[in-house]
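User: Structure please.
Assistant: Input sequence and predicted structure:
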Amino acid sequence: MTELYFKDPRDYIVFEHNLRKVRRPAYSMRAFARDLAVSPSSLNDFLKARVGMSEERIENIALSLNWSAPRKEHFRDLVQAKFERDAGIRQSAMIRVKSRIKESGHGLSLDVFKVISDWYHLVILEMCEMQDHLSAQQINKDLKLASGTGQRAIDRLLKLKLLKKTAQGYKPESGTSHAGDEGTSAAVKAFHAQVLNLATEALQNNEGEAYDSHSLFYSIDQADLPKMNAELRKSMLAILSRYAQTKNANCIQGLSLQIFPIWSKQIGEQNL
């Protein structure tokens, strides 16, 4: 798994909280603090950059969240680089942070993570391509988003230069409207989990011709999986390229391809 290296220690806490909200939308930061065995006020002070964290607290949080050793070390260095009073320790931590991010090539801001992980960003890009003078309020209403979410998403897309302001309103800078296995795996997993939740809602509503579903199980040699998956993805994108358009488009559809293991001989033999 690609390691996740943020540039601000607070982003890790927000990131972990967001991952849990995918499955539990009502999961508050206060509840998250309790699960981390940290007082809500202490966690709030940390998120507002009023205080840092002790070595013991960093260890406990890393254990609670099942962090890898590299992630824990990076978080510790970020905390020291931001909050440590000793200039020497602070400088050493900053050097390690910069070196780690440079070597990995995966230093992300939370804005980048959210664009990768929150489904509505890609939908907003499609909506802006199709409709002129689209407002944040209309986005909130059409996508059933909480108040303020649409504007924050627009601001984020503008900041990352994925969206631009024109005489006709907001327009996308590129044609990206899908997420595969590229980028930070934790973010991609969060994105796909949200898309599956949307698919579940659509399945329950079963909105006529606009909805279609197919599920099947098949036997295959595991050695052939990479080739088959690549061919499926290529075929899917080839078909979409013939029909997906912006000139005469009047709706946005969602398509999610999920291929996952159910059973293998190895598992069966282990259970004997």
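The two ends are 30 Å apart (CA to CA).
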